[in-house]
Specification:
Elements: E1 6-9, H1 27-40, E2 44-47, E3 49-50, E4 56-57, H2 60-73, E5 78-81, H3 91-99, E6 104-108, E7 112-114, E8 117-119, H4 123-136, E9 139-144, H5 148-158, E10 167-172, H6 182-191, E11 197-202, H7 207-217, E12 220-223, H8 239-252, H9 260-266, H10 276-280
Parallel strand pairs: 1-2, 1-12, 2-5, 5-6, 6-9, 9-10, 10-11, 11-12
Antiparallel strand pairs: 3-4, 7-8
Helix pairs in contact: 1-2, 1-8, 3-4, 7-8
The structure holds zinc ion (ZN).
Length: about 280
């Protein structure tokens, strides 16, 4: 079986210091936590930015400062920036992280409910953001909260806005979207075209069980405080502890954990794009 890519989703938009003391919020905290997660086995990090008050932001300056510190401390890890909507709904602002030319950025190809909001990704916005991905050559991670989002991504591929092989992240168990069951995971994985890669992000207590299923199925896993605050024993987790937990399960199951270089190969990332972001953050 292919080596396992562990993604760490460290911060997200929702966790606060009141919810857990372990969520990294400032660029310095995020960079230090990225290093610990990489040491524990993460080859990819999914990054959100927070402003000085800890609120979600799409401010390019904060992303730049965060990336600068990550590249200093952990130069090899693959950086994936978020284009999620909780930090703002302006189209151009949501595309800002892609214009920084990270190796990857997230791309939710459809709309669904989330606690308190409609997570809105309308058809014309999808065409717009897919065009930015195409123009920049940044590899999207297609975030799938509902099965129809796979069809939407394949429509964008048919329009030649997204280039195969596509990489998907199944986000399962978010209140308002597809429930976190192994049956749903198997269905989604079976729905992908051949050659695709996929990872799973189980929300809350589903995080480690769905990660374990994905390790057995040959998929990849995303863990972190963005999706889940707790270790399986119910205590508050650090991001590195969540990464270490799935790394241990993978070892126990005989599946090796991928290095960043191996993850780049599995994800068909262009090696020439590895450090393009350094010029953008100068
Ligand atoms: Zn995110």
């Amino acid at each position: 079986m292919e080596k396992l890519i562990i993604t760490a989703a460290l911060t997200g938009n929702v966790p606060t210091r009141e919810m857990t003391p372990h969520v990294p919020l400032t660029p310095a905290e995020i960079a230090a936590d990225v290093r610990r997660c990489a040491e524990a086995g993460a080859s990819l990090v999914h990054i959100h930015a927070r402003d000085a008050e800890g609120r979600p932001t799409l401010d390019t300056a904060v992303f730049k400062e965060t990336v600068r510190r990550i590249k200093n401390e952990t130069p090899e890890v693959i950086i994936q920036l978020s284009t999620g909507a909780r930090a703002g709904r302006d189209w151009e602002a949501r595309a800002n992280p892609v214009h920084l030319l990270p190796e990857m950025a997230s791309f939710t190809t459809g709309s669904n409910n989330l606690p308190g909001i409609v997570y809105e990704n309308a058809p014309d916005f999808l065409l717009f953001l897919a065009g930015v991905f195409k123009a920049t050559g940044v590899k999207p991670e297609i975030e799938v909260f509902e099965a129809g989002m796979i069809s939407n991504a394949l429509f964008l591929q048919k329009k030649e806005l997204l280039a195969p092989p596509l990489h998907f992240d199944f986000v399962l168990g978010a209140p308002g979207a597809m429930p976190a069951t192994v049956r749903n995971l198997v269905f989604l994985a079976d729905t992908l075209p051949p050659g695709s890669t996929w990872t799973v992000a189980g929300i809350g207590p589903a995080e480690i069980p769905l990660a374990t299923a994905a390790i057995a199925m040959g998929g990849h896993v995303r863990v972190g405080i963005e999706d889940n605050l707790l270790l399986p024993d119910g205590t508050l987790a650090t991001n590195a502890e969540l990464v270490a937990t799935v790394a241990t399960i993978a070892h126990t199951m005989g599946r090796e954990v991928a290095s960043p270089a191996e993850a780049r190969q599995i994800l068909s990332l262009d090696p020439e794009y590895k450090d393009r972001i350094l010029k953008q953050i100068d």
